[in-house]
Amino acid sequence: MSVNQGDNGSGVLRLxxxxxxxxxxxxxxxIALFCAGSLVGNDHWWPFSPWxxxxxxxxxxxxxxxxxxxxxxxxEPGEWVRAPLTPENVGVNxxxxxxxxxxxxxxxxxxxxxxxxxxxxxxxxAAWIGLRVVRHKIVVVDREPTGEVETEVLAEWAAS
Length: 160
Known about the structure:
Layout: E1 3-5, E2 13-15, H1 17-40, H2 52-55, E3 62-73, E4 81-83, H3 87-90, H4 94-98, H5 101-106, H6 111-121, E5 128-141, E6 144-158
Antiparallel strand pairs: 1-2, 3-4, 3-5, 5-6
């Protein structure tokens, strides 16, 4: 980097003409990328385009989907209970499970690894003898939940 000192020896550093020119070129290129990304880009252009999930909105009336897990424990083997789908509870985030839904549906035995992780992370908790991934469809009217919830079981695992 080429630097010139001011004429008066004040210690102020000034960029050379070449230094200013390449910095200006970088700024112009970034502005062009951000503008193009905003106009025609999609999620694959990130960080030069907005993520669709943050750049769009849902209709005021419709439904919202929420994925979660339900478990059966050794303490209450006949009842399905919601369980947190968090790293503290099963070792992974909800998004990691949601991203694997097709593989989990094809091979529900994969859910056993969540039960194993839970046992290691929470050794004092009741053992999970069953686990299922569920998708809740929450009906919304004028941006308010109606209380109507439809639940669909996507995959189910039972301990052997």
